[in-house]
Amino acid sequence: MDYQEGSYLTARDRRSTMETMETKRVSTVSDRRRTEIVVDVAARLFLGPGRVSMDELARELGMSKKTIYRHFPDKHSLMTAVLDRQFGAIEHALAAAAEQTVGRPFGEQLRGFLLAACGELDRIGAAQLATGRGDALLRKHVEQRMDEVIYQRLDELFRDGARRGLLSTPPELLSEIIRGAVERLLNSPLPRQLGRTAADLLQTTVDTVLYGAIRPADE
User: Fold this and answer.
1) Smaller CB count within 10 Å for the chain: N or C?
2) Radius of gyration (C-alpha) of the chain in whole angstroms
3) Alpha carbons 72 and 64: distance in angstroms, whole number
4) Tens digit of pLDDT for each residue in 154-182?
5) Do residues 171 and 162 make contact, with C-beta atoms less than 8 angstroms apart?
6) CATH code for the domain defined by 83-210
7) pLDDT digits (tens, 9 = 90+) for 75-104
8) What's residue 38's pLDDT?
9) Count of beta carbons in the 10 Å neighbourhood of residue 199
10) How many Å from the N-terminal Cα to the C-terminal Cα in the chain?
11) Helix 54-61 and helix 31-46, axial crossing angle in degrees, nearest 10
12) Those residues with Cβ within 8 angstroms of residue 67's Cβ, 6 or more apart along the chain or in another chain
């Protein structure tokens, strides 16, 4: 690019110009909507492969980092917001699955729950989230949300099956088996190697494990 005399901008000038252009562009956008936009783009970038810096996020948004930090004080708080929104989507998916299987046999209710959970986790990139991106606090947050949103509900579902005399296997053992299968499949290269999704392979696993664990309906 050719520069005419006096037209060269210092780094500070460029930042100032960027913030001025940004202010004009987003001045009609509410703070709430701007926050949603930041989370939308952060989710797309942060949940994808590889690491993404705040500089890269700012370029993708067309915002300065200063503007992003007005909404989120640091990358950790932004990632927490991304995670919480994604786990909210999982909760909606589980509620929809429960509604669709009301009155159905226990095995169908369980399969519907697990496939909805694993399918949504697979879609949002839980394989990357499982390690917390190397951040111990984020990893703890992921584990806590997984437990609250998925595993506690799964435990209750198995306990309900046991109370109704529908299980021939201790519910605690089934919970541990399914937890292990979910986390292993989400972090395994096997789905990619087989050209299947983690949810597809979980369905096979659930059918295999539960075949002898759920009592036939006519017993």
Assistant:
1) N
2) 23
3) 13
4) 999 999 999 999 888 899 998 998 888 87
5) yes
6) 1.10.357
7) 889 988 988 998 998 999 999 999 999 989
8) 93
9) 21
10) 80
11) 120
12) 19, 22, 26, 34
Indicate whether 9 pLDDT > 60. no
The structural domains of the chain, with segments of one domain joined by +, span 25-73, 83-210
Name the architecture of domain 25-73.
Orthogonal Bundle (1.10)
Task: Please tell me the distance from the alpha carbon of residue 217 to that of residue 188, in angstroms, as a whole number.
Answer: 34
pTM here is 0.72
Kindly give, in sequence order, each residue whose CB lies less than 8 Å from that of residue 31, ignoring residues fewer than 6 positions away: 71
Q: How far apart are CA 159 and CA 151, in angstroms?
A: 12
Contacts of 162 (CB under 8 A, 6+ apart): 170, 171
